[in-house]
Amino acid sequence: MGKRPNEKNPKNTIAATRLRRIIGFIILLILLAATAFFSLMIGAKPLPIEAVWEALFAPTDRYDHAIVQNSRIPRTVIALAVGPAFGLAGALIQALTRNPLADPGILGVNAGAAFAVALAVGVFSVTTMSSYLWFALVGALIATIAVYVISGGAGKKPPTPVQITLAGVAIGAALSGFTTALTIMNSGAFTRMLNWNLGTLAKRSLDDLWSVLPILIIGVLLSFVAAPSLNAIAYGDDRASSLGVNVGVIRTISLLAITFLAGGATALAGPIGFIGLMVPHIVRWFIGPDQPWIFLYSLIAAPILLILSDIIGRVILAPAEVPVGIITGFIGAPILLVLVRRKKVSGL
């Protein structure tokens, strides 16, 4: 018997979905390029398009060219690196814990990296990015493992998303308290870490980025290695194992990726919150629960949100600046409340 006229062909539906996702991804790329260019134009001193264009392709010693070359290009490029890292880390944690409201901040990963950096600066007098990067990575890894173990991950039954979230919030709060105590007891460390602790893209150089970039790239690659298998894990460990997924290996790869992404990004820009929560969750509304596509979209959408937040921070109290971590908090807190009050959050 032939198909009824109103029946949909599954192949056509799949093709239409893939086409819609590709078009959406292209639109995001265009928005990212536009946002990055606006970041070079907008600040305490707005610059015309012509001045930015000349600063990019024919720079001179003019003052406006120096602003673009020495300040706005580095912070924009750094946002293009740490934004995807925070977004992907959030997407990984949400997929791994099957909790659509999880992110590196809520699960204590950022707090672990921040505490390790405070320890490096306040106790060991470490001052260079290349040195305290490794402290941040170790801190992020220890925090991730501690959350998983304390929530019951070492037992026979995997921990529930609620258990993991509660453990993460508790560990994050404790580590944040220790970080504050360290910086208060050491005035030099307090001064050096004041802006960093709030999350900032200012006063960072491209040399700082180069020391972190290899770690972030490894984290991105590990994320996409784990992404297809995380689709199966979303149905539960037993179902994933029956589909041929080595759950233990995928969890290990995911934890390493989260450590590299959140730890490296936090070392460079500070513990910027809510990016890893908002972006994967919003992306999932538009493209559904397919993890590789969620990761791909988060890779582009996260820096858009971070750069827009940084632009707002530059102009809202100009000529003074508000650190981007505070702006993302102002944006993210109301969104988090809306997500919590929804009867049905977007599924994993």
In short:
The protein is mostly helical and 348 residues long. It has one domain (23-65, 76-341): ABC transporter involved in vitamin B12 uptake, BtuC. It is built from 13 helices and no strands.
Topology, please?
Elements: H1 10-41, H2 49-57, H3 63-97, H4 109-122, H5 129-153, H6 161-185, H7 187-198, H8 206-233, H9 237-242, H10 247-269, H11 275-287, H12 291-315, H13 324-341
Helix pairs in contact: 1-3, 1-12, 2-3, 3-8, 3-10, 3-11, 3-12, 4-5, 4-6, 4-7, 4-10, 5-6, 5-10, 6-7, 8-10, 11-12, 12-13
Question: Which short descriptors sum up this protein?
Answer:
13 helices; mainly alpha; ABC transporter involved in vitamin B12 uptake, BtuC; 348 residues
Structural summary, described in words:
There is one protein chain. The chain is mostly helical. The protein has one domain: ABC transporter involved in vitamin B12 uptake, BtuC, CATH 1.10.3470.10. Helix 1 runs antiparallel to helix 3 and helix 5 runs antiparallel to helix 6. The two termini are 37 Å apart.
